[in-house]
Amino acid sequence: MAVPPPRTEPPAPDRIRLRRELTADPLRLTCALLLAVAATAGALALPLLVRRIITDFAAHRPLTTDIALMCAVAVLGALVQALAGRLLAWIGERMTYRLRTRIMEHALRLPLPVVRAKGTGELTARVTSDALLLREVVDVATQLPLAGLTVVATLGVMVWIDWVLTLVTVLALAVLCVMVLLILRRMKTNVVQQQEAVGRVAQRFTASLEALATVKAYRAEPVAAAALAEDAGKLREVALQGGRLNTLVPAVLTLGNQFAMISVILTGGARLASGHLQVAAFAAFLLYLLQTVPSVSTLATGFGRLQGGLAARDRCNDLLALPAEGDRRDAARPTPVPVAGAPAVEFHAVSFTHTGSDHPALRGVSFSTARTGLTAVVGPSGAGKSTALALVDRFVQPSSGSVTVLGHDVRHWPLEALRARIAYVDQSFTLLEATARDNLRLGRSGPVGDAELAAALGAVGLTEDVARLPHGLDTVLGRESDLSGGQRQRMALARALLSDAEIVLLDEPTSQLDGLNEQRFRAVVDTLALTRAVVVVAHRLSTVQHARHVVMMNHGTVVDAGEHGTLLRRCPPYRELVASQAVAAH
Ligand SMILES: Nc1ncnc2c1ncn2[C@@H]1O[C@H](COP(=O)(O)OP(=O)(O)OP(=O)(O)O)[C@@H](O)[C@H]1O
């Protein structure tokens, strides 16, 4: 009895926990915090030194020691603060690097339909603008406790100097805090809206750049620019709302501080007049009051930035929570041993519907391919040919039925091991932004010598084209050194030729080839088919009519399968397809 495929459980998402991220390097963090505490203590000592100077001055005592002490505290405080800043920058950048790489790696491991649905621009925004907001959390998370500590310590010293004035100060600050908190509540929502708008702009801009040739050819620059401007306009609106909230914070702070200052001066004046307060103590109190202002500002703006960081964390966590491809038990699962005599690929009553589509792309598809030799999958456009190939590589999974590779259900294979067995050439003949050499050896686990590379390039007729590249095989492809469609197609074929894979899936591999290169293609495929299973999806029947096995598909089903000659005799849709292409019947 066939073993049922395991339930595919997504790997546990590694969510961002800010506390864990911040304490990833406890030694440096402790040092930074201690240095920051020392800097704060230095700042707190200054007004007391001022009080001492005023008292000594009034008593005609020498001031040299006081001034030297004050200068030393100021200089040391600045140095310590700079050192703490450096350490925090180091912690912040390391954290951002870790989060960025984690998000990018996870995005690469997401299932293809999920990535398509999310959009490349939207995903890119997570590692650019969201990561920057997250970076701010490091500064804020250390600034906030220190600012809080400074405020509390300052208030403590102020109580010691004059508790009545401190009470007045606290009341004024309480009014200020209530107003700031009301603003902060609205800030997080606004940051989320801003980040979503940034994502939409990035998405549309990326999509427009990817389709730039079409945009230009159809003189659609104004249309594309207008759509981009509309998205940018929406971003401007929410950013303006955020800006308004942001500008409210310092305005409220200034107002609150001035309110506190006036209250303290009036009360302090009265207490001076009544003899309850000395001038030196009042001067020191005022200095402390002035010193609380930046700390209270840091607290208010810090909480605002924290809201931004938390919103960015939530957005990144939403992405990290998307299940990656594969199965977390993959690592523990032994790689299946190919079953002797089993077909290379076998479809058993496979049905599949694309996400977001109402119509099944495949309905009860069954066919198999031998371990070696060429299988051609043919049929009209939209028949489901590419979808069938995508199921073999487990880019998507069947809604019902099963696909087996080398005798094992694709869901039984660890994903890595499955894909190592398959060389896949997609319809767009994608090259990575890497050197020609790296592009060619993508499917090889071990090193590939120059002689082997040269042989593969010769087989697909690319020797001269690659030699003409500015740095030959070491030219980075994709930007200024791009290849033509046909050259890309042949590079992809050479990559398949060099790969270790036992199964080669080629989706429309000849659509951009001229006659000579189509002949070369046939020779390469014949060579590949001597030792491997080659499955070719082809519109041009001339390239596959010599296939040992032809699978004729239409409307998501297999209409018939067999040799070219057999199908010609018994399968009218195939005959029509052949007739439409005027392929000579053998
Ligand atoms: N990503 C997708 N989302 C929704 N529907 C899709 C998607 N990709 C393909 N389809 C639909 O699935 C059906 C089969 O598409 P598929 O690309 O497999 O056909 P095909 O035979 O390879 O066509 P062609 O020869 O034109 O490449 C079509 O109706 C198509 O519209």
UniProtKB/TrEMBL annotation:
It comes from the Bacteria. It is found in: Cell membrane. InterPro entries: AAA+_ATPase, ABC1_TM_dom, ABC1_TM_sf, ABC_transporter-like_ATP-bd, ABC_transporter-like_CS, P-loop_NTPase, Type_1_exporter. CDD domains: ABC_6TM_LmrA_like. One of its GO terms (molecular function) is ATP hydrolysis activity. Its main location: membrane. The chain crosses the membrane at residues 27-47, 67-92, 144-161, 167-184, 272-290. Gene3D superfamilies: ABC transporter type 1, transmembrane domain (1.20.1560.10), P-loop containing nucleotide triphosphate hydrolases (3.40.50.300). Keywords: ATP-binding, Membrane, Nucleotide-binding, Transmembrane, Transmembrane helix. Residues 345-580 form the ABC transporter domain. The keyword Transmembrane helix applies. PROSITE patterns: ABC_TM1F, ABC_TRANSPORTER_1, ABC_TRANSPORTER_2. Pfam families: ABC_membrane, ABC_tran. One of its GO terms (cellular component) is plasma membrane. It is a multi-pass membrane protein. Residues 32-308 form the ABC transmembrane type-1 domain. This is ATP-binding cassette, subfamily B. It comes from Actinacidiphila rubida.
